[in-house]
Amino acid sequence: MTRAFGFGRTAVLGAVLAGAVLLAGCERPPMTSTQQGYRGTGMVQIDNPRIKAAQEAARPPIPAVTPPAPTEGPKARDIFQNVKVLGDLSVAEFTRHMASITAWVAPNEGCNYCHNPANLADDSKYQKVVARRMIEMTQHLNASWDKHVAKTGVTCYTCHRGNAIPAQVWHKPATPQRNRPDVMLGNDFGQNRAVPSIGLTSMHYDPFSDFLQGEEGIRVAGPAALPTAGYKKSIQSAEKSYSLMMHMSEALGVNCTFCHNTHSFQVWDSPPQRAVAWYGIRMARDINNAYLTPLTASFPKERLGPAGDVAKVYCATCHQGQNKPLGGNAMASQYIGLVALAQPAAPALPAPVDEPRKSVLYFGVGSSALEGAQAKGLAQLIVTMTGNARTVATISGYHSAAGTLAANQELAKQRAFAVRDALLAAGVAEARVKLEKPQQTEANIAGEDPVARRVEVTLR
Q1: Which run of H or E residues covers position 12?
Q2: Is pTM, for the whole model, over 0.85?
Q3: DSSP code, position 230
Q4: CATH numbers and ranges of domains, the chain
């Protein structure tokens, strides 16, 4: 009888411990909820005030902004040697920018992290070459991606936060043995990996290579309940899309309903944040393809990933758990060199060609975003495609002969992707859209003629 009682007590204790283990993964109340959409839709943001408070306490204080320096006096390019960016700043303002960038990126290493102390004009350190390009990237983001960064803008601190290498970056992982087609273990499609994992799930551990660098479309829900000849996605593609969504949710510290309408996640009758996120995805592609990947040869081997690629950005790089990076702090506006230098206004783009069987769309310098009238230049072509299901759109991107060929081709490709995405968003089946290799405009050597920065779409 004693043994039976002892066994029962042990079983109860075991059940209690098992229950405690299961509940350890749950968050205890009270929780806070904020209604995001119309009542009854389930569009509610759930927050744990204790976790939120701990996250806020762990974040380093945002560095104080030093007062702007006088803009009068000689320019930096006239006093210092080898100043290829920020040269239009006054010497005082240039020095202020350099001191701030050092505090944001290398507060412990100091100026010598990027510069040769014996010769500040020397470009022998790869860090200086990379930093120069990153300043150009920051200027580009603040000037061309306001639909995502808005008036808040970005600075070096947005990503670095006192670290020479941003804490949140990604590399393409080495291909695991079970992902190789020549082995007999079976292809697990990049799932069920302990490290790294996305959102503590077993979903695909690398959605970034295809979605934030490559051209793969993210949306997997088709226009009909069952797959059609013009639209079909695999289960693996869907799971990879969900994996990216899990990353975005974690990176911004929000629920899915922050961007999506629970009535139908694919419809655009959603909160305005969804459009902001749409531009953010394309901004990440722009950064990775136009600025980071071309720097691969500049980095030493030890700074590259297991697949030999440079560190790249995703949502967590800037957001780091907040739906607005740094809580929406707009320090960028205090640094004119990172927002807009005194440069002549870019010439207006030509009007798009909007015909029933052909469209020609033009882009700004260094931009892959369809802006203003250019975004509406596919209207007549879409009408034709809607009325004739046999037509196929062929997209060709063009670029100038100025600059690096690889970077130009990548930018032309991203512009073609932007046009393709516009067609898909209008309901055109993916099978009816074809991409051609980027083509160089030989006559435009200067690179300023907007005719070189175009995408042509023709129906065949």
Answers
A1: helix 2-24
A2: no
A3: T
A4: 177-319 (1.10.468.10), 353-459 (3.30.1330.60)
